[in-house]
Amino acid sequence: MKMEYVDLRDEYDIKEGIKKAAGIIKKGGLVAFPTETVYGLGANGLDENAVPKIYEAKGRPSDNPLILHISEFDEIKSIVKEIPKTALILAEEFWPGPLTMVLKKSDIVPFRTTGGLESVAVRMPSNNIARELIKASGVPIAAPSANSSGRPSPTKASHVILDLDGKIDMVIDGGAVDIGLESTIVDVTGDVPVILRPGFITEEMLSEAIGRVEIDEVVKSLSPDKDLKPKAPGMKYRHYAPKGRMTIYKGKPERVVERINEEIAKSAGKKTAVLATDETKMYYKADVVISVGSREDGESIARNLFDALRRFDDVGAEVIFAEGFDENRLGFAIMNRLHKSAGYNIIMIKE
Ligand code: AMP
Ligand code: MG
Question: Measuring from atom 19 of ligand 1, which residue has the nearest CA?
Answer without folding.
Answer: 120
